[in-house]
Amino acid sequence: MIQNRRSRGVQATAAGVESLEARRVNEDWTRQALANRVGVALDTLERLIKRERVDRDSVRRIVAALNLQPTDIIDPDEWHRTHIRRTDQQEDLFVVLPVTLSDSPIGPERPVGQVPLESAFYVERPPIEAQCCQEIVHPGALIRIKAPKQMGKTSLTARILEQAREQGCRTTHLSLQSAPSKVLSNIDQLMQWFCRCVSEGLHLPNQLDQHWDDIYDGNYNSTVYFKDYLLAASSPLVIGLDEVDRVFEHPEIATDFFALLRAWYEKARYGDRDSDTWKKLRLIVIHSTEVYIPMNLNQSPFNVGLSIELPEITLEQVQDLTQRYQLDWTLSQIEELMRLVGGHPYLLRVAMYAVAHQTIAFEQVLEQAATELGVYSDHLRHLLEHLERYPELASAFSDVVMATTPVSLRSTLAFKLNSLGLATIVGNQVTPRCELYQQYFCERL
């Protein structure tokens, strides 16, 4: 007879710790701040970083806050393994079991990071999901997903990748936010890092030594690495490439990197002997802002493929979401919350989660929203800290929130405010994204 026993926890890989720490540093969080944000003990976070075993729920919380997947830092085979013990023998066994809803936290998950695949709280935005899932199975497909931060890009990407796996594709998700700063100053280092990460994501040995020739540049070498190694298998390869905005900040490498993505896309369309190989590569390029760096249109991946721009969710979708949270809100209450935060899915879920867990009443959510006592305090403080690191951006947003009419800004400033989710752009005019941001930042900038 076999009986379940409490899992001994899971252990991060060395590459996983590197990705976690790079993302944490990029977010400018101390370890204590990250632990506080996700509701785990600092000791738990530090044990994870030391590659000691940590419980699954803590891992889920930590990676969600950093927009990572559990399998970005834990070996997938280990993540999906359940520890059990025979009662008739003193012998530990490990059995690989499918992921089921029972493996997920009970009740609504904390509204941080990606909405898990098994979650009942993901809001579809028809026909976007269907369009993307149909497109990704096409040979040589490229999908571009654009929306401000915390609007659901990574959650949508996870579902596209899941559909691709169901169609027999190999998949991996890679965020440029996890790239160490040193690799973003040199295209050769960036492409080596990129190839290594894709290899690890596919659980393939790193073979850079066999395919990299220092005579050639990073773009040429990585093209050979993909063609002769990563695309050598018969099954298609789908890469979700997240947070590519980070490359915009490094124009010395951005042109070469994005030109390479475009070149790979075009290789599937040449009709030569290599085209069938490149048809196996499908890309999902995810970004938060308009492309504000000069680019040759013929070398840009941002004007080809399927373009998706995620909208805010609608009143009807918000009503449906309240029912999933088992909240008995009136239409008037829903409209009142939406006047404060609009159709921003993350901000709406924060309020619903808090009320559903009875930590605060609906009326208090509204009254305290723009204060340090409110449910949005951590979120707002993080945005304020980001603006304070960039005085020119802070000054520009101060002009926006203090104005009674839309404001004209330099395009790069407008795009950056939009990518943070702080502002909306209509034509050449900028306004605060929602009343919550106007109230909070009017008093602090």
List the strand order in the largest sheet: 5-6-7-4-8
What is the gyration radius calculated from CA atoms?
23 Å
Fraction of residues in helix = 40-55%
Distance between the termini: 65 Å
Give the overall pLDDT as a whole number: 88
Number of strands: 11
CATH architecture of the largest domain: 3-Layer(aba) Sandwich
Reported for the largest beta sheet, the result is:
5 strands, parallel
Look at the structure and name the CATH superfamily of the largest domain.
P-loop containing nucleotide triphosphate hydrolases
**Residue share in β-strands:** 5-15%
Domain count, please report it: 4
Oligomer: single chain
The CATH class assignment of the largest domain is: Alpha Beta
Please state the overall shape, judged from the principal axes of the Cα atoms. globular
| Poorly predicted residue ranges | 1-7, 82-106
List the total number of helices: 22
| Structural class determined from secondary elements | alpha/beta
Q: From the 3D structure, determine the CATH topology of the largest domain.
A: Rossmann fold
Overall description:
By secondary structure, this protein is α/β, with parallel strands linked by helices. It has four domains: 98 residues, 434 Repressor (Amino-terminal Domain) (Orthogonal Bundle); 182 residues, Rossmann fold (3-Layer(aba) Sandwich), CATH 3.40.50; 61 residues; 65 residues, no CATH class. Helix content is 47%, strand content 12%. It contains 22 helices and eleven strands. The strands form three sheets. A five-stranded parallel sheet has the order 5-6-7-4-8, sandwiched between helices. A three-stranded antiparallel sheet has the order 1-2-3. A three-stranded antiparallel sheet has the order 9-11-10. Strand 10 and strand 11 form a beta hairpin. The longest helix is centred in the middle third of the chain and has 17 residues. It is globular and about 65 Å long. The termini are far apart.
